[in-house]
User: Fold this.
Amino acid sequence: MKTINLIIVFILILLLNNSFSQTEVELNLMPFPQKVILSEGKFRLDIDFTISIEGNPDPRIYRYATRVLRRLSGRTGLFFTQDVITNETINKNSKCIISVKREGKVKLNENESYSLKITSDKIELYTENDLGALRGLETLLQLLAADETGYFFPVLQIEDEPRFPWRGLMIDAGRHFMPVDVIKRNLDAMAFVKMNVFHWHLSEDQGFRVESKLFPKLHQLGSDGLFYTQDQIKDIITYADERGIRVIPEFDIPGHSTSWFVAYPEFSSAPGPYKIERNWGIFDPVFDPTNEKVYEFFDKFFGEMCKLFPD
Assistant:
């Protein structure tokens, strides 16, 4: 009899656990927001889902929201009646309203906070500027869930802002050149997890990766032909800005500079000739601090790069 009672209790526990698991919504959010209040209910997604943006945002938000709509379509298989979001498609009856007070600047310490409220029939995203709207839209995408009926967003309220103003990823293209499409995929991934600084390591002993119009021998001799043209760099900077990401270039000096000396051995602390390094390690040659022409070279080179990179 005791054994039967234990079996009954065990079955009841399993049934209760199964019941809870069916109603519980798992929030797989990265990074997890500062404040989340989860409620009962679901916002059901269908082809009539629309997004409307009101306020005074930077135009990037319209393009970003359009991409979000298409990403939702790709994940759900739903062909939404709305295809493109512009400043002319403001509709108070839209299922999703994004309210933006002002244009955001892609810079350090800009306000990236947002407030997201989802009810069973409405989604409201309130932000100080469009950068907060970008972060809130990524949270919305991460909230997408499915059950036997279809796709939905859980009913909840979120108040969120970044803990750190600088949330960066460093890519070492100096040692390992990456094609433009790979850089862009990394920028997409950064936007998904709300990172905002792309630290681009562009020169090393193993390669110099930027086209210089003033000193073309740098990329011609120091890159094995693997470098980014200035047009490609401008394209990547624009691509990053559209996702609320700063591009911070790094040129390694006075050491880690062998690739520079392949082109200009006269600036080195030791006589050449030099070859691009194929191995890792600490190498002796550095820029000669006693050579006045080194400083003249730096002044012209970094002047060119400052015009190319806005940050």
User: Anything to note?
Assistant: The first strand starts at residue 35 and ends at 44.
